[in-house]
Amino acid sequence: MNSVAKLDNPFDELLDEFLESLMNNYRSVSENTLRSIKSDLSRFLAFGYSKKNLSVEKIFTEGFVLEYIAELRKIGLSDRSLSRHLSTLRKWFSWLEVVSKNPRLKMSIGHIKGPRLPNLLPRALSVDEIDSFFLQREKLTKSWIDYRDLALFELAYSSGLRVSELVSIDDPAGKRSLGSLNLEKMEVEVLGKGAKWRRLPIGEKAKNAIEGWLKFREKVLFDKGGCPIKSAPLFVNRFGKRLSVRGVQRRFSIHSLHSSSRLSITPHMLRHSFASHILQSSKNLRAVQELLGHANVTSTQIYTKLDYQFLSEVYDKSHPRAKKKN
Q: HEC string of the chain?
């Protein structure tokens, strides 16, 4: 996103208060999300203040919001980016309605609809492709970074975690940790979207990979003088600090380049494969919903691309007039 000029206007303080409110009320809001929200709102306010002699009353109107969205479309922003901008503005105006004492700043734009977005979902890997991917990773494991990456990939597929959840796990965990690991019970607990905790099982291969990595992690933390071992990130970078979301994405890109397949494997692709494989084997949509941390089962249906055969089986078993007579 193009950078915007630093704003020197009455809304700077309100913007900071809004971001602080998000951090206090939604503990799981990531730094990337906050950065994106701040950038979107700064851009909106900069657009308003670029208009000469434009009063506050005119900036805080439905017509001005529509003009701003039209300008974003004109300069070539995608439908997905436009939807994100609108979502940010809805949050901003909803917050102002509650906290602002100035009636001129109170306006609802919840009725303004964004562009209709297609359901763009990553392709799920087949079980054979998953096996091939991990087999190649194991063969190429030499350095401590390779052991870390193998543990990272195994845990991502084993438990279907989001990238933000993966990097938030601490071992050992402290009072302020957003994720914890229990290898003895073979489970991991993370704080996901909507500030909801969920506990997930860990597979045997993921457990073994993590144990292999932990032998190296202690040395990395000691050598680099990073986080204290009494409460340390499960996955650290070469400086002994917590591995970032961008760092994980970069590691996936690097391993994809050295993969024997031509697939560009992403963290979200492993999460999608996890959900698809569990659903195909169990036919239990409700269980997959809980494992993924979806608040609404509709998200799970779209996410896993339910096939007609599965829906047909559910129908045949459930509908009183669908059962065939012997």
A: CCCCCCCCCCHHHHHHHHHHHHHHHCCCCCHHHHHHHHHHHHHHHHHHHCCCCCCHHHHCCHHHHHHHHHHHHHCCCCHHHHHHHHHHHHHHHHHHHHHCCCHHHCCCCCCCCCCCCCCCCCCCCCHHHHHHHHHHHHHCCCCHHHHHHHHHHHHHHHHCCCHHHHHHCECCCCCCCCEEEECCCCEEEEECHHHCEEEEECCHHHHHHHHHHHHHHHHHHHHHCCCCCCCCECCECCCCCECCHHHHHHHHHHHHHCCCCCCCCCHHHHHHHHHHHHHHHHCCHHHHHHHHCCCCHHHHHHHHCCCHHHHHHHHHHHCCCCCCCC
Q: 11-105 has which fold?
A: DNA polymerase; domain 1 (1.10.150)
Per the annotation, the verdict on 193 as an active-site residue is: yes
At the top level of CATH, which class does the domain 127-281 belong to? mainly alpha
Q: How far is CA 119 from the centre of its chain?
A: 16
pTM of the model: 0.67
303 in active site:
yes
Which position among 251, 271, 272, 277 bears the catalytic label? 271
Which residue in 43, 137, 162, 217 is the catalytic one?
Answer: 162
Higher pLDDT, 52 or 79: 79
Domain residue limits, the chain: 11-105, 127-281
For residue 219, name the pLDDT band (cuts at 50, 70, 90): confident
Out of 121-125, 160-164, 197-201, 208-212, least confident range: 121-125
294 catalytic? Reply is yes
Looking at this protein, which amino acid is placed at residue 219?
A: K
Q: Which residues pair with 187 in a beta bridge?
A: 182, 201
Bridging pattern class, strands 187-191 and 197-201: antiparallel
Candidates 193, 198, 205, 224; catalytic one: 193
